[in-house]
Structures are given as structure tokens and as C-alpha cells.
Specification:
heterodimer, A: 383 residues, alpha/beta, Rossmann fold, 2 domains, 6-stranded parallel sheet, 13 helices, 8 strands, B: 367 residues, 5-stranded mixed sheet, 15 helices, 39% helix
């Protein structure tokens, strides 16, 4: 009789393509990406990090209420987004802004959402960072952790019913969210219902202040995959090319076989959990610095591009400035814009506005006609 | 505790002799159980729209824990009727995700008591996503299953969730009473682009009701948000839904016979959006109101009706305060005799009516 536990097996190995200096380890693994695509990928990563920095500061200055940064995970965002088709449906958690940017959402749209102004595609309904875009096939972000996971599986189930389906679903979630009951249900269903879904875990070491050593005892999230019948891979999340390869292969597999894939991307959350967190309370500055220095996805990818002769110090300086200016300019414009029309508060509760809300809308309209001077109507968009 | 078919016969007689708001004519019609009515509704809607599908525990090969989905897996196969692993959070989430992606799921909870394990998906995702997505992602999903007390299944299988779900904007909440209610409302729910919670009743599943020709048509749909006056009367209004309607009708029969009190029984059919207009019209006629529900008193459906009466001109139509008849404020006990006391019966409604009409409320409250 032999009991098995988490030490009975070797940990699932980590797949990487580049070393810390951006050098390809095995030439056979280098993806065939053209110059324009590679440069676009890198530029998006830089744009993301500038946007993060400025929007984080703007929360500290009281301009927006809340923000979450993505430092250290840019490689996961862009590596995965670049391997998907724009038709694939994306369910995200909240730390995947790079995917939105790569898909074509503009800095303007994202900043407008943070400000909740009249041009916010979300009509002022959601807190900052809770982006969504039907046009870009990105499901509107939902706060309760992990609920997007079985929902992603359900959407994949809907896709596979279509004959000649060529779309998959990707679902991002963190190492902490993977502890939710929904995660287990999602993995189990994805396997038992044969759904074309990629479950991508961003294991960044922390769930607010809870380190992974307290989050789970097993071999990370990847070890749960084979246990539940999922094709599984563990990848270096700071290696953009490795993430790209992994997601590309996963996508081809899910669409061809209507079977799920679990990818665990190992990275490190360089920033605080959000603007409501101060991570110096639970981790050392040295730890953060080590990861920033040795395992920066931006650094590794930049070196790779430089080795290929696609990028240099000049272009770096120019793009850095442009990326920063874009965000600053966009913010200045966003601040000047009006707030959404007050009527948006009552719209979209149901498909058709029910009589009770219609009545309340009418009452408010009449009230405002009578007492406009008591309300900041000029700050809001009017009909 | 077992119900006989007499309420159905009496119901038919009253329908023959009075006009009702439901747009059906009670001609010579064959009785259909609530279970079969639900089954017909699902079958017809699945045939009509191939995006409609059913998922839940035991819905496929087992024909459903309460046989509501009997025969559907045999007819439509694995693609349209899916047995799920045992996780309410899991399959409710799957259903919501499928609705996001354009399908029309019917998600069955073996009982709504188990829906609490999935309530985040129902409230935070299904109810709120259309709003949060700025009107770009509708969620055309139906959550259905038995709700409220059954028989000898105790605390964790007997709670009524009418008040919980009807609290939340973004959801529509239905509580059918008769077979016609069940069929018409479920078809309307499946066709509705909003998320709908359909609170059925296990005891009512087996009760047959006359089903008019019109109700047997494949296009028979009842309007969501419209109550039905099951029995007209001029002395007092009884507002109820689901099994409460059966209780109220039985009490009305007793009161008409023994005391000559004519009760007007208003079957809500929809809890949210609530048809207050019908209640108001009835109060304007009778000037007295009782609410009847199985759920607990605090923050219940009856409490909502009282609040609305207070806030409307109907307040001035009342000649006496409103009295709520509710389930006893305890977790449901198991013993049969205790259970019978914990759920309102016709005698409780009769007591309430005589108290209200006798203006005895102040005396009781002064004790």
C-alpha cells in the first residue's frame, strides 16, 4: 500500500523559449512572427506599462477612484492575445488590460471608462478596470472571483454546437481565483462536456497579500489539470514568445478536438494588488527588485528584438515618449468630458424598460424641468 | 397534506360561471397536471427554437428528478438536454456563459434551496450583466425548479425564495399556480430576453387542472407581469401566488359557504414585476386586503405589497389594516404535524379574513 501526495511526482516543468537575455534557447521553438507583428507586440507592452503608471498616479491624485496595474504580466497578456484569433471570445479577471489593448481597444476608450465620462463605452456603469467590449469579443469584467470560469466553459459549449466552428474561448484567472469552487467546476465541466476552451492561469505569486505558499499545497494549478482530464502546460509567463507558442498550440488543439487546455503561466506581480493595497506590508522590497531586474517581460522581449535588429535605443526613446504622451493627452481630454446622461442610470436594467422605471424616469424629467438650478445638469450629457 | 383534485373541479366551475382576466375559455377540456404542462412548454419551445436547451442534474436519462423533463432527452438527445456533474455553481455558471454566447438555456435546480450554491451566478452575473455591459450583453436564461415547502423534507429543502429573488432588479420572477399558469408563464420566460427565475411547486406538480383549447396551442403565452383574478368577490381581497393561491381559494370556498364572505382571490403569477394595478383595482372594490404566502414574514412578498399599498392611493381605500398570512418564522421542522403548523393552511386564511373584517387587529396587537 502506497499513499501518493504532492511530492510523489516531479513538478510539471516550465516551458520557455528565451533566456533572461532575450536569446533563443532552442531555435526550433522560435515562433515565425514577422517584424511588424513583433514590433506591434512590444509597443503594446510599453503602452500598457505607461498607461498603468499614469493611471495609478491619477488615482493617488484623486482623479479616478480606483486602478489596478499589470506590471510583470505584460508578457502573458500580449503573448496570449497575439496567438488568438480576434473572433475568439475572451473572459478575463481584471489584470489583463494588455489583451484589450492588443485587440484594438484604444487608450482613449480605457481612460474614458476609468473616468466614467459620457464617452465611456460602459456608460458609467462599472468601476475602473472592469472593461468590456462586445465588438472586440471581450466579455465585460465581473468582480466576483472565478465566476468567469464556468461561464467561459458554457460559452465554449455554445460555440462547439455550431457546425464547422472555428472559434475558441480563453479564460484568464489568477492563482488565488483558482481556489474558488467555480474553478474546480469549470475544469471538470470543460473536460466532461468537451469544450473548446483555454483556461489560462496567471500565477503571479500573490492573491492580494496571500502568497502561493498559503494558497495551495499541491504543485501549483497545473497539477490539477491532468487530474481532471485536461491537456496541461506550465509556461514561463515572463517569456512573451513562450506564452505565444503555448496559446497558439492550445488554440489549434481546442478548436480541432473540442477539448480544453489548461495553461499555467508563471510570473510575478510587481505592483500592488490595486490602489487599495500597499504590498510593502507583506513582502520585501528586495523580492520585488529581484523579479523586476531578472524576469522583466519587457526587458527580455526588448533584448530579443534588438538581437534581431528590429529595435534600438532611439526607437525605444521615441516610442516611450509617444506612449506616455498619448496617455497624458487622453487623460486631459477625458477629464474635460461631461458625465454620462443621468438617464443611463435607469436604462438596460431589463431588455425593455419596465413601466415602473419609465414612470420614475418621467417623474425625474419633470422634476428637473421645474428645478434645474438645483442640479449640476451642465456637468452631464443632455439628450 | 396530500391535495385531492377537488380544487381543480371547483376551479373549473368558478371559471365557467365568471369571466376571468386570463384569455382562455374553459370549454370541455381534459385535465393536465402542472408537471405535464411544464413538460409541454419546454418541448414546444425547444422545437420552436434550436438555441433553447436544458441542463441540470438528472434532467436527461433520468427524465428529471421530478420528471418535468420526461421524454425530452429521448427526443432531442445529448446536445439539447444535458446532465451535469453535481455542482450548482458550476452548471449555473455554464448556463450563464452559454447565454452570454447567444444560446437560451433552461437551467434546472433540483430545488431552489440548492440554488443558493449558485446564487452569485444568478444575481451578480445573470441579473446584472445587461446593465453592466451597457446593454450589449443580454442574458436570455431561465432558472427553474421547485420552490418552497414540499412534504417532510425539512429545513434545507423547504425554503421559499420568492422574496430573495424578487428583491433584485434585472431579474423577472414568476410563481405559477395552475397548469395553465405553468405552461403560459414558462413559455413566456423562455422567449423573454431577460433572465427569469421560475419558482414552481413540488406538491402542485401532480395536480391536474382543466386546460382550455387555447392553452393547448403551441403559441399560448401568458404575459409576464400580469396577475389573474381567480375568483371575484366584494368583501375582501386575497393576494397570493403559487401554492398560496390554492390555500386562498380553499379558504374563499369555506368563507363563502359558512359565513357568506365573498373573497376576491388575486393570483399574482408574476412576483417581479408585480402587477400592483390589479391589486389596487381589487382594493378599491373590497376595501380590505390579506396577503398569503408560504415564505417567512420578515421582508417577504406580503411586506412588499403592504409597502406599495402605503405608498399609493390604495391606502385611502382600506377600511382596515392589511394582514399578512405567512409561513411560521422558523426553519421548517420535519415532523409531519409540526410541518402542517409551519405552513399556512386555509384555516389560517379564514382566521385572518375574519379578524380583518371584524376589525380585531388592534385588540390582538394590544395583547
Amino acid at each position: 500500500m502506497k499513499f501518493f501526495n504532492e511530492t510523489s511526482y516531479e513538478p510539471i516543468p516550465i516551458y520557455r523559449v528565451m533566456d533572461n537575455n532575450g536569446q533563443i534557447i532552442d531555435k526550433n521553438e522560435e515562433p515565425n512572427l514577422d517584424k511588424a507583428t513583433l514590433i506591434n507586440m512590444y509597443k503594446t507592452m510599453v503602452q500598457l506599462s505607461h498607461m498603468d503608471k499614469i493611471l495609478y498616479e491619477s488615482q493617488r491624485q484623486g482623479r479616478i477612484s480606483f486602478y489596478m496595474t499589470n506590471y510583470g504580466e505584460e508578457g502573458i497578456h500580449i503573448g496570449s492575445a497575439s496567438a488568438l484569433s480576434p473572433k475568439d471570445l475572451v473572459f478575463s479577471q481584471y489584470r489583463e488590460v494588455g489583451v484589450f489593448l492588443y485587440r484594438g481597444m484604444t487608450v482613449t476608450e480605457l481612460v474614458n471608462q476609468c473616468y466614467g465620462n459620457c464617452e465611456d463605452p460602459g456608460k458609467g456603469r462599472q468601476m475602473p478596470v472592469h472593461y468590456g467590449s462586445k465588438h472586440h469579443n471581450m466579455v465585460t469584467i465581473s468582480s466576483p472571483l472565478g465566476t468567469q470560469m464556468p461561464q467561459a466553459v458554457g460559452a465554449a459549449y455554445a460555440y462547439k454546437r455550431v457546425p464547422n466552428n472555428d472559434r475558441c474561448v480563453i479564460c484568464y484567472f489568477g492563482d488565488g481565483a483558482a481556489s474558488e469552487g467555480d474553478a474546480h467546476a469549470a475544469f471538470n465541466f470543460a473536460a466532461t462536456l468537451d469544450c473548446p476552451v483555454i483556461m489560462l492561469c496567471r500565477n503571479n505569486g500573490y492573491a492580494i497579500s496571500t502568497p502561493t505558499s498559503e494558497q495551495y499545497r499541491g504543485d501549483g494549478i497545473a497539477s490539477r489539470g491532468p487530474a481532471l482530464g485536461l491537456h496541461t502546460l506550465r509556461v514561463d509567463g515572463t517569456d512573451t514568445l513562450a506564452v505565444h507558442n503555448a496559446v497558439k498550440r492550445a488554440r489549434d488543439f481546442t478548436v480541432a478536438n473540442n477539448k480544453p487546455v489548461l495553461i499555467e503561466a508563471m510570473a510575478y506581480r510587481v505592483g500592488h494588488h490595486s490602489t487599495s493595497d500597499d504590498s510593502s506590508a507583506y513582502r520585501s522590497v528586495e523580492e520585488i527588485q529581484k523579479w523586476t531586474k531578472d524576469e522583466s517581460p519587457l526587458q527580455k522581449f526588448k533584448l530579443y528584438l534588438e538581437h534581431k535588429g528590429y529595435w534600438d535605443a532611439e526607437t525605444e526613446k521615441a516610442w516611450s515618449k509617444e506612449a506616455r504622451d498619448t496617455v497624458v493627452r487622453t487623460m486631459q481630454e477625458a477629464e474635460k468630458k461631461k458625465k454620462p446622461n443621468w438617464k443611463e442610470m435607469l436604462e438596460d436594467v431589463y431588455y425593455e424598460m419596465p413601466p415602473r422605471l419609465q414612470k420614475q424616469m418621467k417623474q425625474m424629467e419633470e422634476h428637473l424641468k421645474k428645478y434645474p438650478e438645483h442640479y449640476p445638469l451642465n456637468q452631464h450629457e443632455s439628450d | 397534506m396530500a391535495l385531492k383534485s377537488s380544487p381543480a373541479v371547483l376551479g373549473m366551475l368558478t371559471r365557467l360561471s365568471r369571466r376571468s382576466f386570463a384569455t382562455s375559455k374553459a370549454l370541455a377540456s381534459k385535465p393536465v397536471t402542472v408537471r405535464d404542462a411544464l413538460n409541454q412548454a419546454i418541448d414546444e419551445e425547444m422545437e420552436r427554437d434550436e438555441k433553447v436547451f436544458v441542463l441540470g442534474e438528472e434532467v436527461a436519462q433520468y427524465d428529471g428528478a421530478y420528471k418535468v423533463t420526461r421524454g425530452l432527452w429521448k427526443k432531442y438527445g445529448d446536445k439539447r438536454v444535458i446532465d451535469t456533474p453535481i455542482t450548482e455553481a458550476g452548471f449555473a455558471g455554464i448556463a450563464v456563459g452559454a447565454a452570454f454566447a447567444g444560446l437560451k438555456p433552461i437551467c434546472e435546480f433540483m430545488t431552489f434551496n440548492f440554488s443558493m450554491q449558485a446564487i452569485d451566478h444568478i444575481i451578480n452575473s445573470a441579473a446584472k450583466t445587461f446593465y453592466m455591459s451597457a446593454g450589449t450583453v443580454p442574458v436570455p436564461i431561465v432558472f427553474r425548479g421547485p420552490n418552497g415547502a414540499a412534504s417532510g423534507v425539512a429545513a434545507q429543502h423547504s425554503q421559499c425564495f420568492g422574496a430573495w429573488y424578487s428583491h433584485c432588479p434585472g431579474l423577472k420572477v414568476l410563481m405559477p399556480y395552475s397548469a395553465e399558469d405553468a405552461k403560459g408563464l414558462l413559455k413566456a420566460a423562455i422567449r423573454d430576453p431577460d433572465p427569469v427565475v421560475m419558482l414552481e411547486d413540488e406538491i402542485m406538480y401532480g395536480i391536474p387542472f382543466p386546460m382550455s383549447d387555447e392553452a393547448q396551442s403551441k403559441d399560448f403565452v401568458l404575459p409576464i407581469g400580469k396577475a389573474k383574478v381567480e375568483r371575484e368577490g366584494r368583501h375582501i381581497t386575497l393576494v397570493c401566488a403559487g401554492r398560496g393561491t390554492d390555500t386562498a381559494l380553499k379558504a374563499a370556498e369555506q368563507l363563502a359557504g359558512s359565513k357568506g364572505i365573498e373573497c376576491e382571490v388575486v393570483n399574482l403569477r408574476t412576483i417581479r414585476p408585480m402587477d400592483f394595478d390589479t391589486i389596487a383595482r381589487s382594493i378599491a372594490k373590497t376595501h380590505h386586503l390579506i396577503t398569503v404566502e408560504q415564505g417567512w414574514p420578515q421582508s417577504g412578498i406580503g411586506a412588499e405589497i403592504c409597502a406599495r399599498v402605503m405608498e399609493s392611493p390604495s391606502f385611502f381605500e382600506l377600511d382596515a389594516p392589511v394582514w399578512r398570512v405567512c409561513g411560521a418564522d422558523v426553519p421548517m421542522p420535519y415532523a409531519r404535524t409540526l410541518e402542517a403548523h409551519a405552513v399556512p393552511g386555509p384555516a389560517d386564511v379564514v382566521d385572518a379574513v375574519t379578524s380583518v373584517l371584524g376589525n380585531k387587529i388592534s385588540a390582538v396587537q394590544a395583547q
